[in-house]
Design brief:
heterodimer; A: 463 residues; alpha/beta; Rossmann fold; Alpha-Beta Plaits; 3 domains; six-stranded mixed beta sheet; four-stranded antiparallel beta sheet; 43% helix; globular; B: 363 residues; mainly alpha; 0% strand
Chain lengths: 463, 363
């Protein structure tokens, strides 16, 4: 009997299957890597997925260069089966396909040529593995163990960026002050706040574009000895809110950018190919700047930032030009990029898409009028809440809502034009609020608990 | 239609794009290819154009027309450079800046071969139309000592050495040396030398501008190469400020004839040293601004002319360098100019590092 998989794992597995259905094998292989890294406790599986991905890329490159042949096609088919097999193995490890050194799944490691025959399931070996002490009985345990091991193995000890009491004053009077911030590899920091709160200013300071007036700024991981800006900025990828126009063909720009960052020859081709697939840009590889939409221009900027293998990624409002589907893919990609085992990245991004950013961010920095209102993990925001706050839409009048929620001890209801922000005592759950409204036959179109979201910090600001 | 060598060039293009980004950005392979095609065309045109002794009066026109064609061919490349090469600002290593400059000089240099090929072919054709006998007759009096003395008595020839008139190579002797301003024609008349009527058009032809190698080198090869290089290492505002400022100073120097030479040289030296100061301290500046970038640009722009400027200044104060006695094959200025180019290449990586430091510094 299989172990219950967490929901994100199921979603990811489904995504991989749909990518295979859509014949997007490179992306499927990359997502498989993300999948095994996050949800598999067995290093063998991770290794075989890495090798499989490499073989798939190599095979696809050959097909692209030399053309498809029946032999290559059958190799591709075998590799596709391997992806599905690995998925099955992780989803249902008690089934017979556990990887042992003799397992046909691991034969992937020894080369595609050895995989001419269809995969055979070694049930006997799997059964033995199932009783092994090495075997983890719980999926979550495996995942935790793997994460700990990985952290021990690859996590750099130093922060990429450390800022303390950072300050910047413009002649016009606006002051950004008291910014304390640490960015570490594998961490995503969301920067939120109302318009004109200083988000872009802060990001430009962190990217080395804008000089700060006070406080300390250091890049221990990028340049531990001094502030050598040439060295520091060559390791930072900064995608501004309005990226500049570029010239020529999309893929040529990426090859060029990679080559300028000393990534040459085949490694250059592979990296660009990988990024093109990862960001869904392969259709537009021959496109020019004015031939692609704003969303794809932003994807290109991210691709350009990534092919340079930066050590710090700074994104200013990257979600603004993206549609909702692309936003989700983009954010998931950011998460994966941050967690990359070969080049774990610290990422900081500003956005007005709070919920989307919160879904992937490890911590949030909320700015208002140049000052930090909140900084830290969202759990902290929820834990230290003084009141529970819910966001809802309803055609009902504010007075009616107040009247109905009175018994729950409603503290305040703010009407933002489209939604109501309802504040109640911390012990009042969302279910209670919703029940109360529904009992009174008040129509509710949308309901969200924002007690642990930075959304509640916008209350009463930016008007 | 199948373009010859296109496949090879495409492969080379890919190879350079993946491995040598600076070469790819400079597109040397495409430019050399286009240059070869153009050279073939120029030769064809030269063969087709009619030749007569009067053609010599058209040589300047041919030269500038071919130069315009070269300019036209180079324009898309310059545009491409202006668009792509700024990416090298922070990414490239300092030594690649020197290669880049060398590449620019190379491209501008080879395209200058087009007009010279055209006028060269035409000169050779015209030269062949004049017999050796006629030439010798015309030159006989000129090369005699008395004629030289006569020539030197005229203000415009004062200081010109006899060897200048005596050391003719066969072609230039026919075309250049007897094609001099009307003063010489008058002198010939005074001396009673009756040139052959067929040679007369040479003597009456205007002064050919393409014979000014230093003007051509300085303005057509070096200057655009430097400006292109500057454009890539600085922002447009600073570049324009540099150029406007530099041009304004030179115009002022030209117009103010009564301005003492000391002041003129003083201004140039001041610009040079201020720019050098800015370049040296670029990385330590608290704030970067376009004035400092402009200073660096001026220093950079004057670098190639520095030995010539310093020599002129030294001569002005009566100081003579020991090597002034050597003739350098009759072209002392060329040697100084070459020294300037070497200086430019040696110092380009250094200046580029300063640029990078200045550009990278938050402002």
């Amino acid at each position: 009997m299989g172990v219950a998989l967490p929901s994100p794992a199921i979603d990811l597995a489904e995504e991989i299957r749909s990518l295979i259905q859509g014949d997007d094998l490179p992306r499927a292989a990359k997502r498989l890597l993300d999948y095994v890294r996050q949800f598999s406790g067995q290093r063998e599986i991770v290794n075989s997925a890495i090798v499989l991905t490499g073989q798939l890329r190599s095979l696809q490159r050959d097909i692209r260069r030399i053309g498809d042949t029946p032999d290559r096609h059958s190799q591709l088919s075998v590799l596709t089966h391997r992806i599905l097999e690995i998925l099955d193995e992780i989803e249902d490890p008690t089934e017979s396909r556990t990887l042992s050194p003799e397992s046909p799944l691991l034969r992937v490691v020894s080369g595609v040529s050895k995989l001419a025959s269809p995969p055979q399931v070694d049930k006997h070996a799997s059964a033995e593995e199932a009783t092994s002490e090495q075997r983890l009985t719980s999926f979550e345990q495996a995942r935790e163990k793997f994460k700990k091991e990985r952290k021990k193995a690859v996590r750099p000890p130093t922060a990429a960026l450390e800022a303390s009491s950072l300050q910047k004053t413009y002649r016009g009077g606006f002051t950004l002050s008291g910014i304390d911030l640490t960015l570490r590899p594998e961490e995503i920091t969301g920067l939120v706040g109302v318009n004109g709160s200083g988000k872009s200013t802060l990001l430009r300071i962190l990217a080395g574009e804008l000089a700060h007036d006070g406080g300390d700024l250091a890049y221990p991981l990028l340049c531990p000895d001094s502030l050598d800006w040439v060295r520091i900025r060559s390791q930072i990828a900064f995608v501004p809110q309005r990226p500049p126009r570029w010239y020529g063909i999309l893929e040529e720009n990426l090859y060029l950018h990679a080559a300028l960052r000393q990534l040459t020859g085949r490694a250059n081709e592979d990296e660009v190919e990988f990024i093109l697939h990862r960001l869904g840009l392969e259709t537009y590889r021959k496109a020019r700047w004015d031939e692609i939409s704003g969303g794809f221009q932003m994807r290109f900027e991210l691709a350009k930032a990534l092919v340079g293998r930066p050590r710090l990624l700074i994104l200013d409002e990257p979600l603004a030009p993206l549609d909702i589907n692309t936003q989700q893919v983009f954010l998931q990609d950011l998460r994966d990029i941050a967690n990359s085992s070969s080049n774990p990245l610290p990422i900081i991004l500003s956005s007005q898409h709070i919920y989307e950013v919160e879904a992937i961010a490890d911590s949030i920095l909320f700015l208002d009028d140049g000052e930090v209102v909140f900084s830290g993990a969202l759990e902290k925001l929820y834990r230290e809440r003084q009141e529970s706050i819910y966001e809802l839409t309803s055609p009902a009048e504010k007075t009616k809502l107040l009247e109905q929620l009175e018994p729950l001890g409603v503290i305040d209801i703010e009407h933002t034009g489209l939604t109501y922000i309802v504040s109640v005592p911390p012990e009042i759950t969302g279910r209670k609020v919703l029940d109360c409204l529904l009992k009174a036959e008040i129509e509710v179109g949308y309901f969200r608990d924002i007690s642990g979201s930075s959304r509640k910090l916008f209350k009463g600001r930016g008007e | 239609m199948r373009v010859p060598l296109f496949g090879i060039l495409r492969r080379l293009d890919r190879q350079w794009l993946l491995n040598h980004p600076v070469l790819w950005i400079m597109r040397l392979h495409w430019m050399v290819y286009l240059w070869l095609l153009g050279l073939g065309l120029i030769c064809l045109v030269a063969a087709v154009l009619p030749v007569s002794l009067q053609t010599v009066t058209l040589l300047n026109t041919y030269f500038w027309a071919a130069l315009a064609l070269a300019g036209l061919a180079v324009s898309p490349w310059v545009y491409f450079q202006a668009r792509f090469a700024p990416q090298l600002r922070l990414n490239s290593q300092a030594r690649t800046a020197a290669y880049q400059l060398a590449g620019y000089l190379f491209i501008f240099g080879i395209y200058l071969v087009w007009p010279y090929t055209l006028v060269g072919i035409k000169e050779a054709q015209i030269s062949n139309m004049v017999s050796e006998r006629e030439l010798q007759k015309a030159l006989h009096s000129l090369t005699s000592d008395t004629a030289i003395q006569q020539l030197e008595s005229i203000p415009i020839f004062k200081g010109v050495r006899a060897s200048t008139f005596a050391t003719f190579d066969p072609v230039t002797a026919k075309i250049t040396r007897i094609t001099v301003p009307p003063e010489l024609v008058e002198l010939l008349a005074i001396k009673g030398i009756e040139p052959d009527p067929s040679v007369l058009p040479f003597l009456l032809s205007d002064y050919r501008q393409y014979k000014w190698p230093w003007v051509v080198l300085g303005t057509i090869i070096l200057l655009p190469a430097l400006i292109l290089r500057l454009f890539q290492t600085t922002d447009v505002k600073s570049l324009l400020a540099t150029l406007f400022f530099g041009i304004a100073v030179y115009i002022a120097l030209l117009v103010s004839n009564d301005l003492r030479d000391t002041v003129k040289f003083g201004i140039v030296l001041l610009l040079f040293s201020v720019g050098g100061y800015a370049a040296f301290y670029a990385s330590r500046l608290r704030r970067k601004n376009f004035l400092f970038t402009m200073g660096i640009n001026i220093f950079y722009l004057l670098l190639a002319w520095a030995p010539l400027l310093l020599r002129t200044l030294a001569k002005f104060y009566g100081y003579s360098f020991a090597w002034e006695n050597f003739d350098f094959g009759g072209s002392r200025l060329a040697a100084y100019f070459l020294l300037g180019i070497v200086l430019l290449f040696v110092l380009t990586p250094w200046v580029h590092r300063r640029y990078q430091a200045l550009l990278a510094k938050p402002s």
